[in-house]
Structures are given as structure tokens and as C-alpha cells.
Amino acid sequence: MNDPVMGGKSHSKVTIENGVGVFDGEVVDVPFLHAPGFITMRGTGGDFPDVSSCDSLQLRARASEPYSGYRISFGDKRVPGNRFARGYKADFDAPVGSEMGTVVIPFHEFTVRWDDATGDPVVTCHEDKNFCPDTKTLQNMKTMSLWGEGVAGRVHLEIESIEATGCSPQPVLRIANTAKVDSKESTLTMPLLVLAVAAVAFVVALIHGNRSRKDYEDLNENNRDSSIV
């Protein structure tokens, strides 16, 4: 979507190349306002995954050149005082270069109270929890947009994936914490193993003791019988 406000001249296009989304365009000043407009790459329709147990969004992306007006938004919630602004929005810096980089944007960096003229936050989630992403939106975002907004310049962003991260329950396999997990498991497993071995030994000894006692009693009984004969 290109800025339609008051003759905006910002323009963009979206293509899919080798499984990568390409967001290409330029943000320029709106002639009437003498201020930068916006362009968006938007995804809508269907049910989005429930990410209410997660704490961040994670992008795998790269930009061809520096640009400081990248933003991402999701949902359609609107608050009083926002005439056009909908959804929760946050800024992010895209890695520049030939390799894909990882960008993590915590949900507490998003706010629904942002300026619909500039895209800048008016009241942040840190300042007022009422403007943080709510559970209902996180359960189904319904729509998500990447923006070039509020800063004039060329935009060329390639997006390989967008995921939720920091979700609970955590996956069983944690590559980054292998040593820590192994250490915890070993300290827990060894006492249990010792206890189990001791328990088995006790049971075996008990069985053996009972059997020996019975054999002894049988032997005495046999001796008793032989003496009677």
C-alpha cells in the first residue's frame, strides 16, 4: 500500500523471489505536508497462530542499504484519539548486507498509541500497560504490516521469515543451553539412581533373607523328623 494522503508520492512494490518476500520502494515527502509519507507490505486473511504465550517477534531479514524508518505492526485495535492508526506498532533496525540477520522485537516494545501522521509512539507500552498488546490480539493478529514510514529514503527489505519466539512451554531441545540442562539433569539423576539401586538391593536382601530363614526352618524340620524316626 502506498501513501494515499494528500497526493503522497511514496511508492513501493512487493514480490516473492525464491521464497523470500521483497519489499522495495521509496518514502518521499508529501508535497502538501512537506513531511515523509509511508509505504507498507501487508499480510491479511485467515487465522494467525496463537502467540499469546510468546514474548517476542523474530524476523530473518536483510536490507540493501541503511534506512531508519522500518516499523512492524499487527492487529486492528484502535484507541480513542487515533483517527487512522490501527494495531500495535514498533520500530526495528534491519541488518544491512548480503547475509540474512535475526531481528528480535519484544512485544513490550509495541504500542497501540502511535501517531498516525509519523508512526512515532505517543505513549509507549513501558509508560502505560493499557497500550501493550492484549491477549485477544496475540491469539489472532488477523493482519501484519511492514512499514517504511516517517523517514525519507530508499527501502529494500528482504524477509525470509517472521516467527514468534520466547514461547512457553519451552521446547525440550535447547541447543544454546545444552551444558546447563545436562548439568541439571546429572545432579538430579545421580541421587535418584543411587536411591533406586539401594531400594533394589534392599528388596533382594529381604527376599534372600526370607528364603534363607525358610531353608533354615525346613532343615530343622527335617532334622526333627529324622530324629523321630
Give a quick precis of the structure.
This protein is of the alpha+beta class.
Account of the protein in words:
The protein is globular. With 229 residues, the chain is an alpha+beta fold. It folds into two domains: 5-170, Jelly Rolls (Sandwich); 177-228. It has a five-stranded antiparallel beta sheet with strand order 1-2-13-6-9, with no helix packed on it. Helices cover 24% and strands 32% of the residues. Residues 171-207 and 210-229 have low confidence and may be disordered.
Query: Structural class of the helices, strands and pairings?
Result: alpha+beta
The counted number of beta strands is 13
Strand order of the largest sheet: 1-2-13-6-9
In N-to-C order, the SSE pattern is: EEEEEEEEEEEHEEH
Uncertain segments of ≥5 residues (pLDDT<50)? 171-207, 210-229
Count of domains: 2
Q: Mean pLDDT across all residues, rounded?
A: 78
Shape: globular
If classified by CATH, what would the architecture of the largest domain be?
Sandwich
Give the amount of beta strand, in percent. Answer: 25-35%
How do the strands and helices of this protein lay out in sequence?
Blueprint: E1 11-17, E2 20-27, E3 29-30, E4 35-36, E5 38-44, E6 56-63, E7 70-74, E8 88-91, E9 101-106, E10 113-114, E11 121-123, H1 135-139, E12 143-149, E13 153-165, H2 178-228
Antiparallel strand pairs: 1-2, 2-13, 3-4, 5-12, 6-9, 6-13, 7-8, 7-12, 10-11
Task: Give me some keywords for this one.
2 domains; alpha+beta; 13 strands; Jelly Rolls; disordered C terminus; globular; 229 residues
